[in-house]
Amino acid sequence: MRIAPKDQSRFAARPDPGMRLYLVFGSDAGLVRELGEKLVAALARDPDDPFQVTRLSGNDLEQDPARLYDAVNSISLTGDKPLVHIRNLTRKGQAPLSALLQDKAAQPQGWIVAESTVLGNRDSLVKQAIKAPDAAAIACYQDSQASLDDLIGEILASCGHTIAPDARRQLKSLLGADRLLSRREIEKLALYAGTEPREITIEDIEACIGDVSAFFVDQLCDAAACGESRRIPGLLARCQANGIEAAQILASFGNHFDRLLAIKLAANDQPVSESMLKRMQPPVHFSRIQSFMKQLRRWNKRQLLSAIEIILNAEEQTRRTGAPATSLCERTVMQLSTRSFLKNRD
To answer: What pLDDT, in 10s, does the model give residues 58-107?
Structure first.
């Protein structure tokens, strides 16, 4: 069953529990991640309970397809229905999911939420999910102006704020094609506006969106992805001095590597040109084009998926285990930088 774009957010918040598979796919990595997390939060009693929720990656399914069957048919110690959350599903990793949908006699005990920025409408699993009555296919592509309006209204209204028409137009012009980045910018604006309900103006947007802290995070992402390890300690110190928390840095790295992957996918295995980067939505800033070109030469699609998995694991460790966020963030950034350096040396 295909879920229409206008119904996606509502469906993810209150999914039909009769489904076996919820497939979230498309080029908007931020929206894929947002809806995937929302589905898991709606279906699981506790999304952080390892006895109910099993988290797998596309690489896990490639290496051992049987893990899917074991996880979705596991018996929870708490009696809850098992849920398998698959991130970074690859084309090779879709085979066990496809087999599960084809086998009408199989009645798995639990739900499967699968996220993929690689799969598209032409892939067999997507076609199966659209046709199957017990599967939901949720396509995630860049926000339209109407969906951006809905997102702005939803977030600001939850904080009691309104926004002037000219300020709304200005805000929409600054937001890009990635839902997660857009959401974070709007949430930052709502926080800046304070706790007392009021109307947000253009002056608020100019003061809040695109501040100096974002510059240091961008510099840190570029340095790590280019393998420039010597720059990392100084840039991390600048980020911390500007009050940027470790969780925000990890999230920014996730968005950065998601964007590199999206560019690789858009290039369809062809060399990436500077003109292509300028045409991206949002376009790569002219000051970062040469850095992006260097990064895209260093990382292939599989390596980018591996890097994204490292970042997701770090975010999950911080959230689930309470591991020290600052030290975990520093290790993750250095790990990515070292990988990039070794790739170039080889």
So the answer is: 889 999 999 999 999 887 777 789 999 999 999 989 999 999 888 876 67
pLDDT tens string 129-159: 999 999 999 998 766 667 788 889 989 999 9
Gap between the Cα atoms of 190 and 200, Å rounded: 9
- The span from the CA of 58 to the CA of 35, in Å, is 18
Neighbours of 229 (CB within 10 A): 16
Cβ–Cβ < 8 Å for 128, 15? no
pLDDT, tens only, 264-310: 988 888 889 998 998 887 788 777 899 999 999 999 999 999 999 99
- 5-139 has CATH 3.40.50.300 classification: yes
With beta carbons less than 8 A apart as the criterion, state whether 100 and 21 touch: yes
Full-model pTM: 0.59
Question: Do residues 113 and 86 touch, judged by C-beta distance below 8 A?
Answer: yes
Structure tokens at 152: 């702005």
Q: Residue ranges per domain, the chain?
A: 5-139, 145-208, 212-345
| Architecture in CATH of 212-345 | Up-down Bundle (1.20)
CATH architecture under which domain 145-208 falls: Orthogonal Bundle (1.10)
d(CA 84, CA 77): 15
Q: What angle, 0 to 180 degrees and rounded to 10, lies between the N-to-C axes of helices 246-267 and 301-321?
A: 160
Four-point Cα dihedral 179, 279, 5, 89, nearest 10: -70
Q: Name the E strands within 194-252.
A: 199-200
